[in-house]
Structure formats: C-alpha cells, structure tokens
Design brief:
The chain is α+β, with helices and mostly antiparallel strands and 60 residues long. The protein has one domain: Double Stranded RNA Binding Domain. 27% of the residues lie in helices and 27% in strands. A hairpin with a 5-residue loop joins β1 and β2. The longest helix is centred in the last third of the chain and has 16 residues. The protein is globular.
Amino acid sequence: MAGKFEVDEDKAGKFRFRLKAGNGEVVATGEAYESKAAAIKGTAAVQRAAEDAKVQGLTA
C-alpha cells in the first residue's frame, strides 16, 4: 500500500499534515498552517521537494 498524507485541525485551530507510510506509521509531520488549503499546499511542496532528493549523510 502506498503512503498517504493526512490533514487535520489541531487543538489550537491550526491545520497540520502527516505523511504516513503504507503500514500506517507516521514518517513526517508538517508545521502549523492557518488554513486547510495552505496545509494541502504544504503537502504538494513536500512531494515536489522529495521527488529528486538525495540521501546525504551528515556524520561520519
């Protein structure tokens, strides 16, 4: 099963997204957005950024 983004409203009335793996595990979360539409745009930005992203080790 493919991963998916979920968008919901938090207790403060802000919208956040979660990226869940196919097994349901949360693998990433987004910042707080003022609107649901903005959170959905945030998911699109993550998808674009990750499309050609390389894995880079920062430690030895």
